[in-house]
Amino acid sequence: QVQLVESGGGLVQAGGSLRLSCAYAGRAFRPYGMGWFRQAPGKERDFVAGLTWTGTSTYYADSMKGRFTISRDNAKNTVYLQMNSLKPEDTAVYYCAGREWNGDPYRSGSYKYWGQGTQVTVSS
């Protein structure tokens, strides 16, 4: 059984920061890459950031470049999303996802495993 568990969401004022964490468990999962997606009410789930588990590549949606940073801790089986300069439009449920193959890291369909999501709310 593979589990991805997110944490670190919450309420923050515009301009503030949050760090999301995603820990995975399950020997069946050998990650090729991990990603973060988000979904606001009434909208589709959008790509936020991703990386290869070797750390050789990182990927960001254009609107997150320079504000968000994705990283991982191999020893802890954890991926992080540091979010700075948050804006009200960043409000969404943020999902962690894991993929086991070299698919398109920007597409949700490339990811096999998903966390339950963590709410991020940015007030103006």
Roughly what fraction of the amino acids lie in strands? over 45%
H and E string: EEEEEEEEEEE
Spans of at least 5 consecutive residues with low confidence: none
N-end to C-end Cα span: 40 Å
* Shape, principal axes of CA atoms: globular
Helix content: under 10%
Total helical elements: 0
How confident is the prediction overall: mean pLDDT?
A: 94
User: What is the gyration radius calculated from CA atoms?
Assistant: 13 Å
* DSSP summary, beta strand count: 11
Largest sheet: 7 strands, mixed
Overall structural class, as computed from helix and strand content, comes to mainly beta
List keywords for this structure.
four-stranded antiparallel beta sheet; 51% strand; mainly beta; 11 strands; globular; single chain
Task: Give your account of this protein's structure.
The structure is a single chain. The protein has 124 residues and is an all-beta fold. Helix content is 0%, strand content 51%. The strands form 2 sheets. Strands 2, 4, 5, 6, 9, 10 and 11 form a 7-stranded mixed beta sheet that branches. It has a 4-stranded antiparallel beta sheet with strand order 1-3-8-7, with no helix packed on it.
